[in-house]
């Protein structure tokens, strides 16, 4: 694992909201920090309404974390393309985030409650 990437349990309860609905709530979120970037909250898939997320064809490769797969969120007003991502087989040292989903906060609200 790259020394500038840190993963720790995110304190408290976290929610993800979009389209007027809560699509996830968890007490088991992880906070990933990478260098000077803002922390990213990762939600366990078991705590996300995955029925609202469709795997897209988009894939990207992060030099330190591995291959990211993207999801489109289906809401009443239309799809939010590639609004979430997951590292399903992250690089060595980051296995903790496998099975977790993160969201673009420019598209959905991720909040601690």
From TrEMBL:
Protein origin, superkingdom: Bacteria
Limits of the DUF427 domain: 15-105
Species of provenance: Roseisalinus antarcticus
Protein name: DUF427 domain-containing protein
């Amino acid at each position: 694992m790259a020394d500038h990437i840190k993963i720790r349990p995110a304190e408290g309860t976290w929610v993800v909201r979009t389209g007027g609905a809560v699509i996830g709530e968890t007490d088991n979120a992880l906070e990933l920090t990478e260098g000077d970037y803002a922390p990213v909250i990762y939600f366990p898939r078991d705590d996300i309404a995955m029925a609202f997320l469709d795997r897209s064809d988009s894939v990207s490769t992060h030099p330190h974390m591995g291959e990211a797969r993207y999801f489109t969120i289906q809401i009443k007003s239309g799809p939010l393309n590639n609004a979430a991502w997951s590292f399903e087989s992250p690089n060595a040292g980051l296995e903790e985030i496998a099975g977790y989903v993160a969201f673009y906060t420019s598209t959905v609200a991720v909040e601690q409650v």
